[in-house]
């Protein structure tokens, strides 16, 4: 569906015009059409712990490290050392950047109880400090972290208000791109309404915890000079820092390789027209025990066999359990883990929230750099998670993986009509459904190809058979009696063989009958011919005797006439 | 107004202590607010701490880095470095009552001990 339209939308949302300073936060730069308005002040508002400071810091670090724009952090919240400590784990070396003269971190401790205001004042100390440090490092970026603490600090809010307004203009006059952070207020964007002075760009960060699962969201409330989307974009804080996931951009910029990769099951590849496209997503859904994990394991095995790196995310079983279970169907995956090609990540959904799960996934993707990822049991997250959140989580996950060109196989519990599975199925390129059928006191597995984008695929159902040498797809018997699987199929096949044998016997019998008939008839025919010959001979004999008798009679009459002295009689029979 | 200092139990405010109050006034050049602050501080000190105080006037324009080092945001600012603990008063010091409270030369309410 209209990917091109979506691209247009995102592109036009915040179009060209204003020059932008990239934040280095990829998702955010995407949403804002390239970054924060250059030479302007941006307000980042959010409650405590929403990630305001981190956003600001990442903006500075990216500027200093990647864009040749040194920066200044002025914090009113923590000591400079503490700030550096907090972000060291994210790989931000603030000390190093400061040593290189690319960054300056200054901390002002504001303790309202120790300050008394007695008359008119201004915040010239702040301006002088900023002016000095901006000149010292040649700063192009400035972050003032929670400047709002100045309210209440001096007991003279009207002065602070006027000074902050002056500060905004002052910063703009110096051409620096600045972020000021503010506490979220009730009924207004910030508690002290500083959005009144900072009006070029306003970003709101939100941190919600619902049913013990935390979700962080980012919204660009205002971006002067540009139309902007007011969507909320989920974000999370990974080990590499801030990650914003613009879900609406899903499937926008991915390449569409023509290369096919094997699922590890030859007949399945055949059904899908030669395998699945590299970088596409496959969903395998089915109820418990339909062989979803086994199918995934084949994909893992095939990929590792090609020498590719694989990340296998398990949420229901431990790696040892799965490796053991897969050996029972003839798949020994341990060599791949030993060779470092297969990385198994047991990620119990209950252990951490969706955000943390995503953050860890990003980290792993960076470390393992897989080309194939198998997500086993995605629907396990649905427990205790609203469907919408689940969907958005999956979308982000798919987005993360697809953006890296990773081929995905996800398994989900469910027959396919559950909302969670349905919503996920729309994100994937290929959907395989495994179903148990119960008949004659046994359960057998069937595999359906529900959809496969961009591929002529088989519409036939196959029986999915797990053998001790791997999974196989077998034609199901379709006949007057319906679809037969398992031993019913075997019985039917035996019956068919029997019928064939019986039919062959029948024919042989008939052939013999006929042959016998023919030879009987031939014998009969010979006898009849004999008889005909005999009768013909008899006939000849009769004729001969007739002629002899006639001659005898004539001779007798002549003799008698001679004896009676009879006149000569004409020979033409006028003896009457 | 001219209540003698040191009678309210303010720390270090004993009339004949050898102790010298060290006050540091941060200003920016000769702006009207700063000039006023200097004058107001001198007046208060003369009235309450005659002979027991020392005022250092620091012009931040001459050494801007001191603002960050000494944690000075507002100008003018008076910092009482001695006696301990450090006290900070911002403004042109035109509100004498607030100045006395800030310097702990007088409790918040007269009559309190």
Index terms:
heterodimer; A: 576 residues; alpha/beta; Rossmann fold; 2 domains; nine-stranded mixed beta sheet; 25 strands; 24% strand; rod-shaped; B: 113 residues; Glutaredoxin; four-stranded mixed beta sheet; 3 helices; globular; disordered N terminus; disordered C terminus
Task: Note down, in words, how this protein is organized.
- Chain A has two domains: 3-10 and 18-249, P-loop containing nucleotide triphosphate hydrolases (Rossmann fold), CATH 3.40.50.300; 260-475, 3-Layer(aba) Sandwich (Rossmann fold).
- Chain A has 15 helices and 25 strands.
- Chain A has a nine-stranded mixed beta sheet with strand order 5-4-7-8-3-9-10-11-12, with helices on both faces. Chain A has a nine-stranded mixed beta sheet with strand order 17-16-18-19-15-20-21-22-23, with helices on both faces.
- Chain A is rod-shaped and about 200 Å long.
- The longest helix of chain A has 79 residues, at 486-564.
- With 576 residues, chain A is an alpha/beta fold.
- In chain A, α13 packs parallel to α14 (419-425).
- Chain B has 113 residues and is α+β, with helices and mostly antiparallel strands.
- Chain B has one domain (21-102): Glutaredoxin (3-Layer(aba) Sandwich), CATH 3.40.30.
- Helix content of chain B is 27%, strand content 21%.
- Chain B has helices at residues 32-49, 65-69, 96-102, and strands spanning 21-27, 53-59, 77-82, 87-90.
- A four-stranded mixed beta sheet of chain B has the order 2-1-3-4, covered by helices on one side.
- In chain B, β3 (77-82) and β4 (87-90) form a beta hairpin.
- Chain B is globular.
- The chains are: A alpha/beta (576), B alpha+beta (113).
- The A-B interface holds A 106, 108-110, 114-126, 128-129, 131-133, 150, 154, 156 and B 26, 28, 33, 36-37, 40, 60-61, 64-65, 67-68, 71-77, 86-96, 98-99, 101-102.
